[in-house]
Amino acid sequence: MTQPCTHLLLFGATGDLSKRMLLPSLFGLDADGLLPDSLRIIATARSVHDTAEFRALAAAALDATVDADRRHPDQVARFLDRITYVPLDASKAEGFAALAQEIGDTAHVAIFLSTAPSLFGPTIAGLSGAGLAGPGVRLALEKPLGSDLASSRQINDAVAAAYPEDRTFRIDHYLGKETVQNLIALRFGNTLFEPLWNAGGIDHVQISIAETVGLESRADYYDGMGALRDMVQNHMLQLLALVAMEPPARFDPTSVRDEKVKVLRSLRPIDRATVESHSVRGQYVAGAVDGQPVRGYAEELGRSSGTETFVALKAHVDNWRWQGVPFYLRTGKRLPERTSEIIIQFKPVPHSMFGDAPLKPNMLIIGLQPDENIGLTMMAKAPGLDRDGLKLRSVPLDIGINNAFADVRRRIAYERLLLDLIEGKQTLFVRRDEVEAQWTWIDAIRAGWAAQGMAPAPYAAGNWGPNGAIRLTERDGVSWHD
Ligand code: BG6
């Protein structure tokens, strides 16, 4: 059993992710007594603060993100007491010695890099030079882990030079979401679905992550990446892999990640020849979201851009189980609502005994956001005497996880991931071979777009992407589940 850590070293501690997610998550764990008693949090960033100033910043971050009834002053004080702030310019080697001194015993240390990827190299070199890469030290990294296969390999090589794979924790925060775990429970904790979970029983799969936000304050990052690399390369492909993987023998890091990587390697390349029929790029122009007028992407950015803010894809997993089953993926900014869901659409009945009455195939709906829920649609008879034949309707069968667990607080993804990092559990972190398989598939799509000169098509903010996204599925007689 891996030892929990005595120190958590947080790089980028004054940044947005830290204030919005990491500090609140650590507080949530602490308030519930889940952090090791002796755990100290060493926060570091470039800005010069002393510990008291940083604790005030952390307290303000908790005020802004944690409900007042979950913020007991004693718990807040205890949490802040764990934190020491050490200013550090990661591009200079000197500061790392002070960090190492602050930590002292490095037998059980977790390091979380929530910084720009350009700092990964110097930070890892500094850490390793200061003796902070020994056998008891784990390293967690936030995306983006590169912008293509080549740059991701560079990062992975720099990491591997100091930290072996079994101490490297690559974060994909979607893997920490409650319903994503539930997908695994649903598939492998029940006998009901698995016999149908293949090309014989499933017609197609849809994975959608829709957001209402626009560029937010990340213009440089986002414009350099676009929806394909920001969302599909990581979150959507991880969801696809969990839906499509073979049953792992155990819920352990090797078994689960071995199965996921097989799926990622079986993705049929979308390349120059198929990119026009299998992918759609879009960029939002001015429109309205939630009844509020919003500017177009180019106006928000202050210049024109060829970056996509929407992407839809038709993917195939070329293996025995999934032959002929399309996986439709769709994600975008400034769409009509914030929702993430996975839809498993089963095959229609082979023959209807109900004459012309339309029968809707069963659909398993796994909602990730805004609410977590799992539902199944079933055909049922509408009440009545039915003198002209049975009237059937598709009705939802709610699996009821919300009611069954109404009294259990839902944790944000980072709570689970930080706790797993602290406890040294790697199952929910992405392995190098997975990241590289993901980039290989994504790079081919980008090369195809470049070869075909495929620019993003405009869509008005507040719509479900450009019309091409609708055609992508309608050609196959499929509608997106809105
Ligand atoms: C991040 C992307 O990885 O995920 C963002 O960089 C996106 O652009 C975010 O907004 C979505 O995460 P969530 O958990 O809000 O769906």
UniProtKB/TrEMBL annotation:
Family under the similarity heading: Belongs to the glucose-6-phosphate dehydrogenase family.
Lineage: superkingdom: Bacteria
Pathway of action: Carbohydrate degradation; pentose phosphate pathway; D-ribulose 5-phosphate from D-glucose 6-phosphate (oxidative stage): step 1/3
Gene3D superfamilies, sorted: Dihydrodipicolinate Reductase, domain 2 (3.30.360.10), NAD(P)-binding Rossmann-like Domain (3.40.50.720)
Glucose-6-phosphate dehydrogenase NAD-binding domain residues: 10-182
Binding site for NADP(+): G12, A13, T14, G15, D16, L17, S18, K19, R46, K143
Gene that encodes the chain: zwf
GO annotation, biological process: glucose metabolic process; pentose-phosphate shunt, oxidative branch
UniProt name for this protein: Glucose-6-phosphate 1-dehydrogenase
InterPro entries tied to this protein: G6P_DH, G6P_DH_AS, G6P_DH_C, G6P_DH_NAD-bd, NAD(P)-bd_dom_sf
UniProt organism field: Sandarakinorhabdus fusca
Function in brief: Catalyzes the oxidation of glucose 6-phosphate to 6-phosphogluconolactone.
Class of enzymatic activity (EC top level): oxidoreductase
Residue ranges occupied by any Glucose-6-phosphate dehydrogenase C-terminal domain in the UniProt entry: 185-481
Reaction catalysed by this enzyme: D-glucose 6-phosphate + NADP(+) = 6-phospho-D-glucono-1,5-lactone + NADPH + H(+)
UniProt EC number: 1.1.1.49
Residues the entry annotates as binding substrate: H173, K177, E211, D230, K333
GO terms of molecular function: glucose-6-phosphate dehydrogenase activity; NADP binding
Active site residues of this protein: H235
GO cellular component: cytosol
Keyword Hydrolase appears in the UniProt entry: no
Keywords: Carbohydrate metabolism, Glucose metabolism, NADP, Oxidoreductase
